[in-house]
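Q: Could you predict the 3D structure of Dibenzothiophene monooxygenase?
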Amino acid sequence: MTEPGRPPALDPSLPATSAAPRDLPGLLEALRASAAQRDREGGHAAQEKQWIAEAGLLTLAVPREFGGAGAPWPQVYETIRALARVDSALAHLLGFQCLQVVSVNVWGNPAQRARYLRGTVEGRWWWGNAVNPLDTRLIASATADGGFRLNGQKGFCSGTRGSQMMTVSAHDPQTGKPIFAVVPTTRDGITVHEDWDPIGQRQTDSGSVSFAHVKIEPGEVLHRSETQPAPHATLRTLVSQLVLTNLFVGIAQGALEEARQYVTRNGRPWITSGVDKATDDPYLIARFGEMRLQTVGAQALAERAARLLEDAWQEGAALSAEARGEVALATSEAKILAHRAALEVSQNLFDACGARSTHAPLALDRFWRNARVHTLHDPLDYRVRDVGRYALSGILPEVSLYT
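A: Sure. Here are the predicted structure tokens for Dibenzothiophene monooxygenase:
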């Protein structure tokens, strides 16, 4: 059995090399260069994840007191957006890395925070996600020492393949509530399945994970949900939702940029346009104008929500329920616009670029496919309902697993 809290470091078979990108711009260019091919192949992006680790991005959300970057939320989300412009699958992995760090930060006691957050820095741990309280197939049976045994399965476990640690939620039948814990991914009894095969977001390692008599030590149990959590602890949900929001914005931005480059290089004016260059076609100009309006509008609301989240985060235990609700409202507003922008801009890319842009090797459809898969995470209708309720009656969104 792996010693608790002592998982292996990054894959030693993938050492740093002189060819690895040394900064964020270099990383983005390297990811963009292989994005289309990796989208076709799917599977696990081991080398690219290594590059992300070598760029120092795994500790963006780790507080400075534990040796991390301690980046403010607007900076975290800008980094996620930057990756999503070129590869939204790997941006998803980075976003969920930050989310698991936050899970430990808000649910862990001081000793757990020090142990796991400092370990993330020193071991350059990738974190996997097996937290979904709605999925009650994973059963937690209490043990006499205060720990648990886990048996069952979890689905949509993003980032688990190739990770060193994972956060887990499981159903405790004795209390009827979920328990939350940290466990090394290599713990005896854990099997990470390679069964993630969607039409988009193909390299998020979001397959299922099976647990067979997996021991959870008492010190690995983070949170038992026995009492109503303080408003600050519930910010984890909004951190998660803004990860998705900024993925959507990045997809829209990436699709717009790919369309611009394609039309600039390869565009032909329509035969009745009366212009010599595609970039002078008034209808094409109007189409790009609409795509940009959607994109910059979504970015503006995403940045506003990130600033509000940062302000709320800095409040700590003093954060009020009302202030938390205002962040939730801003998050829903941003996510609605980002959701729509990602789908519409990635679809309108083809109207802007024309028939030749559907050439399969270009893989320009990956933006729409990635957006379509990711925007199904939770229903947009309920988010619009929350915004409409506030607009009509001044009622802020209630705390839930998604707001």
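Q: Anything worth pointing out?
A: The chain has three domains: 24-127, 129-223, 235-393.
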